[in-house]
Design a protein that fits this description.
The protein is mainly alpha-helical and about 90 residues long. It has one domain. About 65% of the residues lie in helices and about 0% in strands. The protein is flat, with a radius of gyration of 26 Å. The protein starts with about 20 loop residues before the first helix and ends with a helix.
Length: about 90
């Protein structure tokens, strides 16, 4: 006879208390700059801002990888991996 394991009851996830996403940011910027700039200008600014933030984040992440692992290229990663495998193969099994 097979035993049944009760499944935990899943509660529906509550909606987020704060809005997020690029659309919400663009809507906020359109509202803030309503009297000073056109919607197209604000939308272009918002897209540029998102690209700049993404590029900055990528740069900081890559700098952190270089700083932590002291590796500047994928060739170095491959060379270190091959050297480690060769070192493991040269060690006697014991």
């Amino acid at each position: 006879m097979q035993q049944r394991v009760p499944e935990p009851r899943r509660r529906p996830r509550a909606p987020s208390a704060r809005p997020c996403g690029a659309g919400v940011q663009q809507a906020l910027l359109v509202k803030v700059f309503a009297g000073t700039a056109t919607g197209a200008t604000v939308a272009a600014y918002s897209v540029g801002q998102q690209i700049a933030i993404a590029a900055f984040t990528f740069g900081v992440g890559f700098a952190a990888l270089v700083w932590v692992f002291k590796i500047r290229s994928f060739k170095e990663v491959i060379a270190q991996g091959r050297a480690a495998r060769a070192e493991e193969a040269a060690e006697p099994a014991g």
